[in-house]
């Protein structure tokens, strides 16, 4: 199941999707969202510049990776990560955790 479908099944609205880094950067700067889910590798490019923008906006984000936490960009290894493939329940728990963390920071 695609992540967007999973999010909708959980009752969330998908604010935006991007298939390449430039588009993701533009959306990260201009789109309102509660939490972002970032695939670590987008068409062979590391997602770090997008994560940097989201971090600067003080918005929560979760990484999705097939490589485990060692596949995360080094500066973000302390961030939550979903190991692909993941189940609906795992995604739901990760989002709840990210949103609770954002509430305590804000």
Main traits of this protein?
106 residues, Rossmann fold
How are the SSEs placed, and which strands pair?
Blueprint: H1 3-9, H2 21-30, E1 36-39, E2 41-42, E3 45-46, H3 48-56, E4 61-65, E5 81-83, H4 88-105
Parallel strand pairs: 1-4, 4-5
Antiparallel strand pairs: 2-3
Helix pairs in contact: 2-3
InterPro entries: CheY-like_superfamily, Sig_transdc_resp-reg_receiver
Protein name: Putative response regulator receiver, CheY-like protein
Modified residues (4-aspartylphosphate): 39
How is this structure best described in words?
A hairpin with a 2-residue loop joins β2 (41-42) and β3 (45-46). The chain has a single domain (3-104), classed as Rossmann fold (3-Layer(aba) Sandwich). It is globular, with a radius of gyration of 13 Å. The protein contains 4 helices and 5 strands; from the N terminus they run ααβββαββα. With 106 residues, it is an alpha/beta fold.
CATH fold-level assignment: Rossmann fold
**String of helices and strands:** HHEEEHEEH
Looking at CATH, the homologous superfamily is: Response regulator
Q: Which CATH architecture is right? A: 3-Layer(aba) Sandwich
CATH class: Alpha Beta
Brief synopsis:
The chain has four helices and five strands; from the N terminus they run H-H-E-E-E-H-E-E-H. With 106 residues, the chain is of the alpha/beta class.
